[in-house]
Structure formats: C-alpha cells, structure tokens
Amino acid sequence: SAGKANGSMSSQEWAQVVRAVEQARDLGYSVVALNQTVQGKLTAEHLAVWKTIPAIDGAQLSWNPATGKRVAVQGSGNVAAVKRGSVRVLRRVTAVIREADQGHSVSGTPVSNEYDVVAVRPTSEKLLFAASSGAWAGVDVIALDMAARWGFFAKHKTVGQALALGLAFEVAYGGALGDAVQRQQWVSNVAAMVRVTRGKGLVWSSGARQAFELRSPNDVTVLGEAVQLNSALTKRAVSVNARAVVVHSFTRTQTLRAVVAEVNQAGSDQVAAAAGSDQGDEAARKRQRVA
Length: 291
Known about the structure:
The protein has 291 residues and is an alpha/beta fold. 31% of the residues lie in helices and 18% in strands. The chain has 9 helices and 9 strands. The chain has helices at 11-26, 100-103, 125-132, 156-164, 180-197, 217-224, 231-237, 240-254, 282-286, and strands spanning 31-39, 59-61, 87-97, 117-122, 141-142, 168-172, 202-205, 260-265, 268-273. Strand 6, helix 5 and strand 7 (202-205) form a beta-alpha-beta unit. It is globular.
C-alpha cells in the first residue's frame, strides 16, 4: 500500500508510488491496493488526490483519473479481468477512528463507496468492538497498527464477531522491517492476533511507501512462521483472503442485498451471482448462479 494521510500528493511522491506498483507486479502480484490514510472524517475532498495519479505502465486502474469515479465493474469483482503481465490497481482508504462518529463517514456513504476497499483503524477497545460488531456497515478490513502498543486486548468474542461478518484483520509486515523496538512490538501484536483469530480471516499487506519495502509472497510466507502462522494459512492471507476482501466490498456496494448484481457486458444485461467471502457458508455458495 502507498499513499498520504489527507492532503495532496507531489510528483515525487507519486513517482514512489509508481515504482512500488511496478515492483509489486515484478514480484508476481496481480492486484495492488493503494492506501490513503484519513485522520478524522472521510470527505469528498479526499477523492481529489486520485485524479493526479500519473500513468503506470501495465496498470489497470479501477477508477477514471479524469473524473475520480470508479470504473463500471465487469464481472463479479474488481479482480475478475487482469490482463496477463498487468497489475490491477485498486483504491483503498483507511480511516483512523478516535471517535465513534468518525466511523459513520466510511459507513456506506457515496464517498466511501468510491473506494474498492474500506478499512478502519480503531484506537480503543470500545471502538474495536464497534467495528467488529458491524456498527459501521461499509467496512471491509480492520487494520490495527501492529508496530504500536495498543493499550487494549483484542478479545476472542470481539474478533469472532468480526470474522462472522466477513471482515478481515490486516497484518502489515512493514512493522517487521523497522527498528528493534518496532520489531519486538510487531511480533508481540501479530502473535496475539494469530492466536485470537486462529489464523483465520487475516490479510497480509506491505504497508510500504517505497518499492524496496515490498516482499514477495514467498518471503511473506516465511515471515509468518515467526509468529506461529503455518505456511498454508499465510498463503491464504496473501491470496484467498485478500481476494475475499475485494469480493466483500463488491457485494456491499455493487449487489442487491449482497446476493445478485446487474452487470452491463458486451451490450447486454447479465445477472451474476456475487461470490461470497471465505467466511461464507456452503448454502450461500450453492445459490450462486449465472443467468
């Protein structure tokens, strides 16, 4: 992920983002989410920065830079049609929540629905409970800062509620690349999150601001072993679970009651069942049909 909290982006900062996207593509990633961190409430002004992104060779943007609006989805999610040798670039927003009313600005508003992925970073146990219990319906990811001391515990019941709703918990491995104090805190927090989730519903990301901070999927798998996460669950965290986050967002913003979506394709209207997340039950999968 890359981005800047509030404010605009300079040409030098965008150049770093472009290099990071190209590096991610070279490392074998087919989908990249660029993250914008927002302090306080999300407003329409935050969308303006995405109009200034420069051209990226081999990248398919999920939005139109001229308008800043999302491009109409073709298929059952924003990862459905990535050309060979290309990388799909999504927009993500992470709202740092310090007051409960700040969460409502990312709860299915016209502005938040322009983003492909919506994440929140609660700063207290009470706010974590609110995010996990679905108080803010437009959220896809809970992104606690793994390199910082939280001041509270993530409890089994609270985390279980979030997983039951199809929400994911993010582990940004960038904290493991910091100084000794950050690394120690990162290992402690991630190990605690692995225990409380039993390794389910985790999504690993880079949190990178520059290309050299990115790691390949295989490197991330090795890193998972340091926090008692087996290779199978770590691989899911960088593949299946990550895709489930995008599909969760799609069903929330592009479907009717998270069941079906009407898609214009090749001049004709098709109805495609929206794919469920990795937390969905078997009955929901059996109802998926393409008309």
